Amino acid sequence: MNQVIETLLNHRSVRDFEDKPLTWEQVETIVASAQAASTSSFLQAYSIIGVTDREKKEKLAEVVGNQPYVAKNGHFFVFCADLHRHAVVGEMENVDVTSPIESTEKFMVAVVDASLAAQNAAAAAESMGLGICYIGGVRNNLEAVRQILKTPDHVLPVFGMAVGYPASLNDRKPRLPLRHVYMENEYQQDEQLYKKQLEEYNEIVAGYYAERTGGKRRDTWTGQMASMLEKKARMYMKEFVAKIKMNIR
Amino acid sequence: MNQVIETLLNHRSVRDFEDKPLTWEQVETIVASAQAASTSSFLQAYSIIGVTDREKKEKLAEVVGNQPYVAKNGHFFVFCADLHRHAVVGEMENVDVTSPIESTEKFMVAVVDASLAAQNAAAAAESMGLGICYIGGVRNNLEAVRQILKTPDHVLPVFGMAVGYPASLNDRKPRLPLRHVYMENEYQQDEQLYKKQLEEYNEIVAGYYAERTGGKRRDTWTGQMASMLEKKARMYMKEFVAKIKMNIR
After folding, report:
1. Can you tell me the ipTM of this complex?
2. Interchain pair B33, A134: CB under 8 A
3. A46-85 pLDDT, tens per residue?
4. Which of A41, A56, A173 is closest, CB to CB, to B42?
5. Residue B120 burial class via C-beta count within 10 angstroms: exposed 0-12, middle 13-18, buried 19 and up
6. CB-closest option in A88, A101, A172 to B198
7. Domain locations in chain A as residue ranges
Protein backbone atom coordinates (compact mmCIF):
# COMPACT_ATOMS: atom_id res chain seq x y z
CA MET A 1 0.00 0.00 0.00
CA ASN A 2 1.46 3.36 -0.99
CA GLN A 3 1.36 6.56 1.06
CA VAL A 4 -1.54 8.04 -0.90
CA ILE A 5 -3.87 5.10 -0.33
CA GLU A 6 -2.74 4.85 3.27
CA THR A 7 -3.58 8.54 3.82
CA LEU A 8 -6.99 8.19 2.19
CA LEU A 9 -7.97 5.03 4.08
CA ASN A 10 -6.81 6.52 7.35
CA HIS A 11 -9.15 9.51 7.13
CA ARG A 12 -11.31 10.42 10.08
CA SER A 13 -12.92 13.76 10.90
CA VAL A 14 -11.14 15.86 13.50
CA ARG A 15 -13.27 18.18 15.65
CA ASP A 16 -10.72 19.16 18.26
CA PHE A 17 -7.73 21.21 17.18
CA GLU A 18 -4.71 22.75 18.85
CA ASP A 19 -4.72 26.53 18.83
CA LYS A 20 -1.92 26.78 16.28
CA PRO A 21 -2.44 28.57 12.96
CA LEU A 22 -1.31 27.10 9.65
CA THR A 23 1.54 28.88 7.90
CA TRP A 24 0.91 30.60 4.58
CA GLU A 25 3.05 27.92 2.97
CA GLN A 26 0.71 25.22 4.29
CA VAL A 27 -2.37 27.13 3.11
CA GLU A 28 -0.79 27.63 -0.30
CA THR A 29 0.02 23.92 -0.66
CA ILE A 30 -3.53 22.98 0.31
CA VAL A 31 -5.06 25.43 -2.18
CA ALA A 32 -2.66 24.46 -4.97
CA SER A 33 -3.58 20.80 -4.41
CA ALA A 34 -7.26 21.74 -4.54
CA GLN A 35 -6.74 23.56 -7.83
CA ALA A 36 -4.99 20.55 -9.35
CA ALA A 37 -8.22 18.54 -9.25
CA SER A 38 -10.18 17.93 -12.43
CA THR A 39 -12.72 20.59 -13.37
CA SER A 40 -15.65 20.16 -15.71
CA SER A 41 -14.83 21.59 -19.17
CA PHE A 42 -12.07 23.75 -17.62
CA LEU A 43 -14.80 25.87 -15.98
CA GLN A 44 -13.12 26.05 -12.55
CA ALA A 45 -16.51 26.92 -11.11
CA TYR A 46 -15.54 27.30 -7.46
CA SER A 47 -13.84 29.64 -5.04
CA ILE A 48 -12.25 29.07 -1.68
CA ILE A 49 -12.57 31.64 1.08
CA GLY A 50 -10.08 31.35 3.91
CA VAL A 51 -11.44 32.87 7.10
CA THR A 52 -8.71 34.19 9.37
CA ASP A 53 -10.48 37.12 11.02
CA ARG A 54 -11.22 36.11 14.63
CA GLU A 55 -14.57 37.89 14.78
CA LYS A 56 -15.82 36.38 11.51
CA LYS A 57 -14.77 32.93 12.71
CA GLU A 58 -16.71 33.34 15.95
CA LYS A 59 -19.78 34.52 14.03
CA LEU A 60 -19.53 31.58 11.63
CA ALA A 61 -19.14 29.11 14.53
CA GLU A 62 -22.37 30.51 15.93
CA VAL A 63 -24.49 30.54 12.76
CA VAL A 64 -23.51 27.03 11.68
CA GLY A 65 -24.97 25.80 14.96
CA ASN A 66 -22.48 26.40 17.73
CA GLN A 67 -19.62 24.27 16.49
CA PRO A 68 -16.59 25.56 18.45
CA TYR A 69 -14.07 23.94 16.05
CA VAL A 70 -15.26 26.35 13.34
CA ALA A 71 -13.61 29.11 15.39
CA LYS A 72 -10.80 27.11 16.98
CA ASN A 73 -8.60 25.45 14.39
CA GLY A 74 -5.50 26.06 12.32
CA HIS A 75 -7.35 27.53 9.35
CA PHE A 76 -10.95 27.68 8.22
CA PHE A 77 -11.87 27.32 4.56
CA VAL A 78 -15.24 27.81 2.91
CA PHE A 79 -15.69 26.07 -0.44
CA CYS A 80 -18.11 27.86 -2.73
CA ALA A 81 -19.81 26.74 -5.92
CA ASP A 82 -19.02 29.80 -8.02
CA LEU A 83 -20.58 30.92 -11.29
CA HIS A 84 -20.11 34.63 -10.62
CA ARG A 85 -16.76 34.34 -12.38
CA HIS A 86 -18.62 33.18 -15.48
CA ALA A 87 -21.08 36.05 -15.24
CA VAL A 88 -18.04 38.35 -15.32
CA VAL A 89 -16.70 36.35 -18.30
CA GLY A 90 -19.99 37.01 -20.12
CA GLU A 91 -19.59 40.72 -19.44
CA MET A 92 -15.96 40.78 -20.58
CA GLU A 93 -16.72 38.85 -23.76
CA ASN A 94 -20.06 40.53 -24.38
CA VAL A 95 -21.96 37.25 -24.48
CA ASP A 96 -25.26 36.56 -22.71
CA VAL A 97 -24.51 33.67 -20.35
CA THR A 98 -27.49 34.20 -18.01
CA SER A 99 -29.42 31.11 -18.93
CA PRO A 100 -26.55 28.56 -18.68
CA ILE A 101 -25.16 29.91 -15.41
CA GLU A 102 -28.62 29.81 -13.86
CA SER A 103 -29.24 26.24 -15.00
CA THR A 104 -29.47 23.09 -12.89
CA GLU A 105 -26.68 21.61 -15.02
CA LYS A 106 -24.19 24.36 -14.19
CA PHE A 107 -25.31 24.36 -10.56
CA MET A 108 -24.32 20.70 -10.42
CA VAL A 109 -21.05 21.40 -12.21
CA ALA A 110 -20.17 24.10 -9.70
CA VAL A 111 -21.05 21.87 -6.72
CA VAL A 112 -18.97 19.05 -8.23
CA ASP A 113 -16.01 21.35 -8.95
CA ALA A 114 -16.03 22.72 -5.39
CA SER A 115 -16.20 19.17 -4.02
CA LEU A 116 -13.37 17.73 -6.11
CA ALA A 117 -11.17 20.67 -5.11
CA ALA A 118 -12.12 20.23 -1.44
CA GLN A 119 -11.34 16.55 -1.36
CA ASN A 120 -7.88 17.23 -2.79
CA ALA A 121 -7.44 19.88 -0.10
CA ALA A 122 -8.44 17.34 2.55
CA ALA A 123 -5.97 14.73 1.30
CA ALA A 124 -3.16 17.27 1.04
CA ALA A 125 -3.81 18.53 4.59
CA GLU A 126 -3.95 15.02 6.03
CA SER A 127 -0.74 14.05 4.26
CA MET A 128 0.96 16.89 6.17
CA GLY A 129 -0.20 15.49 9.51
CA LEU A 130 -3.12 17.89 9.80
CA GLY A 131 -6.70 16.91 10.56
CA ILE A 132 -9.81 18.13 8.77
CA CYS A 133 -13.54 18.31 9.27
CA TYR A 134 -16.11 19.19 6.63
CA ILE A 135 -18.67 21.66 7.97
CA GLY A 136 -21.99 21.08 6.21
CA GLY A 137 -23.43 23.35 8.91
CA VAL A 138 -22.66 26.39 6.76
CA ARG A 139 -25.88 25.39 4.99
CA ASN A 140 -27.85 25.82 8.22
CA ASN A 141 -28.09 29.56 7.71
CA LEU A 142 -26.81 30.55 4.31
CA GLU A 143 -28.29 34.03 4.50
CA ALA A 144 -26.05 34.77 7.49
CA VAL A 145 -23.01 33.07 5.92
CA ARG A 146 -23.55 35.05 2.74
CA GLN A 147 -23.54 38.29 4.71
CA ILE A 148 -20.43 37.37 6.67
CA LEU A 149 -18.48 36.39 3.55
CA LYS A 150 -20.10 39.00 1.25
CA THR A 151 -20.63 36.51 -1.55
CA PRO A 152 -22.36 37.88 -4.67
CA ASP A 153 -25.17 36.23 -6.64
CA HIS A 154 -24.20 32.96 -8.38
CA VAL A 155 -21.93 32.00 -5.46
CA LEU A 156 -23.08 29.34 -3.01
CA PRO A 157 -21.02 28.41 0.07
CA VAL A 158 -21.39 24.61 -0.07
CA PHE A 159 -19.46 23.60 3.03
CA GLY A 160 -16.66 24.73 5.26
CA MET A 161 -13.53 22.82 6.17
CA ALA A 162 -11.77 23.21 9.49
CA VAL A 163 -8.09 22.26 9.22
CA GLY A 164 -5.49 22.11 11.94
CA TYR A 165 -3.27 20.16 14.28
CA PRO A 166 -5.41 17.41 15.87
CA ALA A 167 -5.74 17.65 19.65
CA SER A 168 -7.57 14.33 19.72
CA LEU A 169 -8.51 11.69 17.17
CA ASN A 170 -11.87 10.05 16.50
CA ASP A 171 -12.31 6.49 15.35
CA ARG A 172 -13.17 5.72 11.76
CA LYS A 173 -16.86 4.89 11.40
CA PRO A 174 -17.47 1.70 9.41
CA ARG A 175 -18.70 2.35 5.87
CA LEU A 176 -21.48 0.61 3.96
CA PRO A 177 -20.36 -2.80 2.61
CA LEU A 178 -18.22 -2.28 -0.47
CA ARG A 179 -20.44 -4.64 -2.46
CA HIS A 180 -23.47 -2.53 -1.55
CA VAL A 181 -22.03 0.79 -2.71
CA TYR A 182 -20.23 -0.72 -5.69
CA MET A 183 -22.38 -2.49 -8.27
CA GLU A 184 -21.47 -3.98 -11.60
CA ASN A 185 -23.05 -3.17 -14.98
CA GLU A 186 -26.38 -2.12 -13.59
CA TYR A 187 -27.98 -0.84 -10.42
CA GLN A 188 -28.89 -3.58 -7.94
CA GLN A 189 -32.31 -4.83 -9.07
CA ASP A 190 -32.92 -7.24 -6.20
CA GLU A 191 -34.59 -5.16 -3.48
CA GLN A 192 -34.56 -8.06 -1.00
CA LEU A 193 -30.79 -8.54 -1.29
CA TYR A 194 -30.37 -4.76 -1.11
CA LYS A 195 -32.27 -4.66 2.21
CA LYS A 196 -30.38 -7.67 3.51
CA GLN A 197 -27.10 -5.86 2.92
CA LEU A 198 -28.42 -2.89 4.88
CA GLU A 199 -29.49 -5.17 7.74
CA GLU A 200 -26.03 -6.71 7.86
CA TYR A 201 -24.54 -3.24 7.91
CA ASN A 202 -26.88 -2.29 10.77
CA GLU A 203 -25.27 -5.02 12.86
CA ILE A 204 -21.80 -3.66 12.12
CA VAL A 205 -22.78 -0.09 13.00
CA ALA A 206 -24.60 -1.19 16.17
CA GLY A 207 -21.52 -3.17 17.20
CA TYR A 208 -19.32 -0.13 16.57
CA TYR A 209 -21.40 2.08 18.88
CA ALA A 210 -21.88 -0.65 21.51
CA GLU A 211 -18.15 -1.20 21.74
CA ARG A 212 -17.48 2.51 22.23
CA THR A 213 -20.19 3.11 24.86
CA GLY A 214 -19.90 -0.07 26.93
CA GLY A 215 -23.09 -1.36 25.32
CA LYS A 216 -25.17 1.76 26.12
CA ARG A 217 -25.68 2.90 22.54
CA ARG A 218 -26.82 0.47 19.87
CA ASP A 219 -27.92 2.70 16.95
CA THR A 220 -28.38 1.06 13.61
CA TRP A 221 -27.55 2.91 10.42
CA THR A 222 -31.06 2.76 8.98
CA GLY A 223 -32.46 3.89 12.34
CA GLN A 224 -30.06 6.80 12.53
CA MET A 225 -30.76 7.86 8.95
CA ALA A 226 -34.54 7.60 9.37
CA SER A 227 -34.64 9.78 12.49
CA MET A 228 -32.35 12.30 10.86
CA LEU A 229 -34.33 12.47 7.61
CA GLU A 230 -37.60 12.70 9.53
CA LYS A 231 -36.44 16.11 10.78
CA LYS A 232 -36.56 17.58 7.26
CA ALA A 233 -33.53 19.86 7.68
CA ARG A 234 -32.67 22.81 5.44
CA MET A 235 -35.85 22.71 3.40
CA TYR A 236 -35.29 26.42 2.59
CA MET A 237 -32.47 25.47 0.21
CA LYS A 238 -34.41 25.45 -3.06
CA GLU A 239 -35.68 28.94 -2.40
CA PHE A 240 -32.31 30.26 -1.23
CA VAL A 241 -30.43 28.86 -4.19
CA ALA A 242 -32.98 30.43 -6.55
CA LYS A 243 -32.63 33.74 -4.71
CA ILE A 244 -28.92 33.82 -5.51
CA LYS A 245 -29.83 32.92 -9.12
CA MET A 246 -28.68 29.33 -9.30
CA ASN A 247 -30.53 26.12 -10.22
CA ILE A 248 -33.55 27.95 -11.62
CA ARG A 249 -33.86 26.79 -15.23
CA MET B 1 6.84 17.55 -0.81
CA ASN B 2 5.31 14.21 0.17
CA GLN B 3 3.98 11.54 -2.20
CA VAL B 4 0.34 12.55 -1.69
CA ILE B 5 0.85 16.18 -2.66
CA GLU B 6 3.12 15.15 -5.51
CA THR B 7 0.41 12.81 -6.85
CA LEU B 8 -2.29 15.46 -6.56
CA LEU B 9 -0.24 18.21 -8.21
CA ASN B 10 0.82 15.89 -11.00
CA HIS B 11 -2.75 15.14 -12.10
CA ARG B 12 -3.70 15.40 -15.74
CA SER B 13 -6.60 13.77 -17.55
CA VAL B 14 -5.77 10.68 -19.58
CA ARG B 15 -7.89 9.98 -22.67
CA ASP B 16 -5.81 7.25 -24.26
CA PHE B 17 -5.49 3.94 -22.44
CA GLU B 18 -3.82 0.62 -23.06
CA ASP B 19 -6.25 -2.24 -23.59
CA LYS B 20 -5.47 -3.85 -20.25
CA PRO B 21 -8.18 -4.40 -17.63
CA LEU B 22 -7.71 -3.54 -13.97
CA THR B 23 -7.56 -6.46 -11.56
CA TRP B 24 -10.33 -6.88 -8.97
CA GLU B 25 -7.76 -5.98 -6.32
CA GLN B 26 -7.14 -2.63 -8.03
CA VAL B 27 -10.88 -1.96 -8.36
CA GLU B 28 -11.40 -2.87 -4.71
CA THR B 29 -8.62 -0.52 -3.56
CA ILE B 30 -10.06 2.31 -5.64
CA VAL B 31 -13.58 1.78 -4.27
CA ALA B 32 -12.37 1.39 -0.68
CA SER B 33 -10.45 4.66 -1.02
CA ALA B 34 -13.60 6.31 -2.41
CA GLN B 35 -15.62 5.07 0.55
CA ALA B 36 -13.08 6.45 3.02
CA ALA B 37 -13.95 10.02 2.02
CA SER B 38 -16.07 12.17 4.30
CA THR B 39 -19.81 11.90 3.82
CA SER B 40 -22.40 14.43 4.95
CA SER B 41 -24.05 13.30 8.23
CA PHE B 42 -22.97 9.70 7.54
CA LEU B 43 -25.57 9.59 4.72
CA GLN B 44 -23.26 7.92 2.17
CA ALA B 45 -25.57 9.20 -0.53
CA TYR B 46 -23.81 7.78 -3.58
CA SER B 47 -23.25 4.58 -5.49
CA ILE B 48 -20.57 3.53 -7.91
CA ILE B 49 -21.40 1.39 -10.92
CA GLY B 50 -18.48 -0.37 -12.56
CA VAL B 51 -19.18 -1.12 -16.20
CA THR B 52 -17.33 -4.18 -17.46
CA ASP B 53 -19.78 -5.50 -20.04
CA ARG B 54 -18.32 -4.77 -23.50
CA GLU B 55 -21.66 -4.00 -25.13
CA LYS B 56 -22.73 -1.61 -22.38
CA LYS B 57 -19.39 0.18 -22.60
CA GLU B 58 -19.77 0.63 -26.36
CA LYS B 59 -23.28 1.96 -25.90
CA LEU B 60 -22.15 4.38 -23.20
CA ALA B 61 -19.24 5.60 -25.35
CA GLU B 62 -21.80 6.40 -28.05
CA VAL B 63 -24.42 8.15 -25.93
CA VAL B 64 -21.93 10.35 -24.06
CA GLY B 65 -20.92 11.76 -27.46
CA ASN B 66 -18.59 9.31 -29.15
CA GLN B 67 -15.76 9.29 -26.64
CA PRO B 68 -13.81 6.10 -27.51
CA TYR B 69 -11.96 6.08 -24.17
CA VAL B 70 -15.29 5.38 -22.44
CA ALA B 71 -15.18 1.96 -24.09
CA LYS B 72 -11.41 1.46 -24.23
CA ASN B 73 -9.84 1.69 -20.80
CA GLY B 74 -8.89 -0.47 -17.83
CA HIS B 75 -12.17 0.03 -15.99
CA PHE B 76 -15.12 2.35 -16.33
CA PHE B 77 -16.86 3.73 -13.25
CA VAL B 78 -20.07 5.74 -13.06
CA PHE B 79 -20.52 7.81 -9.91
CA CYS B 80 -24.14 8.32 -8.95
CA ALA B 81 -25.77 10.71 -6.49
CA ASP B 82 -27.96 8.18 -4.70
CA LEU B 83 -30.95 8.79 -2.45
CA HIS B 84 -32.75 5.59 -3.41
CA ARG B 85 -30.94 3.91 -0.51
CA HIS B 86 -32.62 6.41 1.80
CA ALA B 87 -36.01 5.77 0.26
CA VAL B 88 -35.46 2.10 1.16
CA VAL B 89 -34.38 3.18 4.65
CA GLY B 90 -37.70 5.03 5.02
CA GLU B 91 -39.54 1.87 4.02
CA MET B 92 -37.53 -0.32 6.39
CA GLU B 93 -37.99 2.09 9.31
CA ASN B 94 -41.56 3.02 8.43
CA VAL B 95 -40.78 6.73 8.25
CA ASP B 96 -41.92 9.10 5.50
CA VAL B 97 -38.71 10.48 4.01
CA THR B 98 -40.19 11.65 0.69
CA SER B 99 -39.88 15.34 1.24
CA PRO B 100 -36.22 15.42 2.44
CA ILE B 101 -34.94 13.05 -0.23
CA GLU B 102 -36.63 15.10 -2.92
CA SER B 103 -35.21 18.37 -1.60
CA THR B 104 -32.58 20.60 -3.19
CA GLU B 105 -30.54 20.26 0.02
CA LYS B 106 -30.30 16.47 -0.20
CA PHE B 107 -29.70 16.66 -3.96
CA MET B 108 -26.65 18.79 -3.19
CA VAL B 109 -25.55 16.43 -0.44
CA ALA B 110 -25.73 13.47 -2.80
CA VAL B 111 -23.81 15.29 -5.54
CA VAL B 112 -21.17 16.32 -2.99
CA ASP B 113 -20.89 12.79 -1.55
CA ALA B 114 -20.46 11.28 -5.03
CA SER B 115 -17.82 13.87 -5.86
CA LEU B 116 -15.76 13.46 -2.69
CA ALA B 117 -15.76 9.69 -3.20
CA ALA B 118 -14.77 10.11 -6.84
CA GLN B 119 -11.87 12.40 -6.11
CA ASN B 120 -10.48 9.88 -3.61
CA ALA B 121 -10.88 7.20 -6.28
CA ALA B 122 -8.95 9.39 -8.73
CA ALA B 123 -6.08 9.99 -6.30
CA ALA B 124 -5.90 6.30 -5.38
CA ALA B 125 -5.82 5.25 -9.04
CA GLU B 126 -3.16 7.81 -9.94
CA SER B 127 -1.02 6.74 -6.98
CA MET B 128 -0.98 3.23 -8.50
CA GLY B 129 0.39 4.56 -11.79
CA LEU B 130 -3.01 4.57 -13.49
CA GLY B 131 -4.53 7.48 -15.39
CA ILE B 132 -8.07 8.79 -15.07
CA CYS B 133 -10.52 10.95 -16.94
CA TYR B 134 -13.81 12.29 -15.60
CA ILE B 135 -16.60 11.86 -18.12
CA GLY B 136 -19.13 14.66 -17.66
CA GLY B 137 -20.53 13.47 -20.99
CA VAL B 138 -22.77 11.00 -19.16
CA ARG B 139 -24.95 14.05 -18.59
CA ASN B 140 -25.36 14.53 -22.35
CA ASN B 141 -28.08 11.93 -22.49
CA LEU B 142 -29.12 10.83 -19.04
CA GLU B 143 -32.26 9.12 -20.24
CA ALA B 144 -30.12 6.70 -22.26
CA VAL B 145 -27.57 6.28 -19.45
CA ARG B 146 -30.38 5.57 -17.00
CA GLN B 147 -31.70 2.82 -19.26
CA ILE B 148 -28.28 1.26 -19.78
CA LEU B 149 -27.50 1.21 -16.06
CA LYS B 150 -31.10 0.58 -14.92
CA THR B 151 -30.92 3.20 -12.19
CA PRO B 152 -34.12 3.71 -10.17
CA ASP B 153 -35.69 7.01 -9.16
CA HIS B 154 -33.62 9.13 -6.74
CA VAL B 155 -30.40 7.99 -8.44
CA LEU B 156 -28.56 10.40 -10.75
CA PRO B 157 -25.43 9.37 -12.67
CA VAL B 158 -23.32 12.51 -12.16
CA PHE B 159 -20.20 11.60 -14.14
CA GLY B 160 -18.20 8.65 -15.31
CA MET B 161 -14.54 7.97 -14.73
CA ALA B 162 -12.36 6.08 -17.17
CA VAL B 163 -9.37 4.50 -15.42
CA GLY B 164 -6.51 2.57 -16.92
CA TYR B 165 -2.91 2.32 -17.96
CA PRO B 166 -2.01 5.53 -19.83
CA ALA B 167 -0.98 5.03 -23.46
CA SER B 168 -0.09 8.71 -23.75
CA LEU B 169 0.01 11.67 -21.38
CA ASN B 170 -1.46 15.15 -21.78
CA ASP B 171 0.09 18.29 -20.39
CA ARG B 172 -1.35 19.95 -17.30
CA LYS B 173 -3.43 22.97 -18.22
CA PRO B 174 -2.56 26.07 -16.18
CA ARG B 175 -5.12 26.85 -13.48
CA LEU B 176 -6.60 30.20 -12.50
CA PRO B 177 -4.18 32.27 -10.37
CA LEU B 178 -4.22 30.94 -6.81
CA ARG B 179 -4.95 34.42 -5.48
CA HIS B 180 -8.00 34.63 -7.73
CA VAL B 181 -9.56 31.35 -6.61
CA TYR B 182 -8.50 31.77 -2.99
CA MET B 183 -9.77 34.84 -1.17
CA GLU B 184 -9.45 35.87 2.44
CA ASN B 185 -12.30 36.73 4.83
CA GLU B 186 -14.70 37.85 2.16
CA TYR B 187 -15.41 37.45 -1.51
CA GLN B 188 -13.36 39.76 -3.74
CA GLN B 189 -15.30 43.04 -3.78
CA ASP B 190 -13.12 44.88 -6.30
CA GLU B 191 -14.57 43.96 -9.72
CA GLN B 192 -11.78 45.80 -11.57
CA LEU B 193 -9.04 43.81 -9.84
CA TYR B 194 -11.08 40.65 -10.40
CA LYS B 195 -11.20 41.31 -14.16
CA LYS B 196 -7.53 42.22 -14.23
CA GLN B 197 -6.67 38.83 -12.72
CA LEU B 198 -8.73 37.13 -15.44
CA GLU B 199 -6.94 39.15 -18.13
CA GLU B 200 -3.57 38.10 -16.75
CA TYR B 201 -4.74 34.52 -16.72
CA ASN B 202 -5.88 34.89 -20.34
CA GLU B 203 -2.27 35.65 -21.28
CA ILE B 204 -1.06 32.51 -19.51
CA VAL B 205 -3.67 30.29 -21.19
CA ALA B 206 -3.02 31.85 -24.62
CA GLY B 207 0.70 31.24 -24.15
CA TYR B 208 0.03 27.63 -23.18
CA TYR B 209 -1.94 26.96 -26.38
CA ALA B 210 0.45 28.97 -28.59
CA GLU B 211 3.42 26.99 -27.33
CA ARG B 212 1.70 23.68 -28.08
CA THR B 213 0.46 24.59 -31.57
CA GLY B 214 3.43 26.54 -32.94
CA GLY B 215 1.49 29.77 -32.45
CA LYS B 216 -1.60 28.61 -34.39
CA ARG B 217 -3.99 28.57 -31.46
CA ARG B 218 -4.23 31.50 -29.08
CA ASP B 219 -7.47 30.90 -27.13
CA THR B 220 -7.97 32.91 -23.99
CA TRP B 221 -9.77 31.41 -21.02
CA THR B 222 -12.57 33.97 -20.98
CA GLY B 223 -13.01 33.53 -24.74
CA GLN B 224 -13.15 29.76 -24.45
CA MET B 225 -15.63 29.92 -21.56
CA ALA B 226 -17.87 32.45 -23.31
CA SER B 227 -18.16 30.43 -26.52
CA MET B 228 -18.83 27.27 -24.53
CA LEU B 229 -21.48 28.87 -22.30
CA GLU B 230 -23.12 30.51 -25.30
CA LYS B 231 -24.05 27.01 -26.52
CA LYS B 232 -26.36 26.47 -23.52
CA ALA B 233 -25.60 22.74 -23.11
CA ARG B 234 -27.73 20.27 -21.15
CA MET B 235 -30.57 22.65 -20.46
CA TYR B 236 -32.85 19.59 -20.02
CA MET B 237 -31.24 18.87 -16.65
CA LYS B 238 -33.75 20.57 -14.38
CA GLU B 239 -36.59 18.64 -15.94
CA PHE B 240 -34.72 15.33 -15.95
CA VAL B 241 -33.66 15.61 -12.34
CA ALA B 242 -37.25 16.38 -11.34
CA LYS B 243 -38.44 13.40 -13.35
CA ILE B 244 -36.30 11.08 -11.25
CA LYS B 245 -37.66 12.86 -8.17
CA MET B 246 -34.66 14.86 -7.06
CA ASN B 247 -34.21 18.60 -6.45
CA ILE B 248 -37.93 19.34 -6.55
CA ARG B 249 -38.74 20.92 -3.17
Report:
1. 0.98
2. no
3. 999 999 999 999 999 999 998 999 999 999 999 999 999 9
4. A173
5. buried
6. A88
7. 3-170+234-243, 178-218
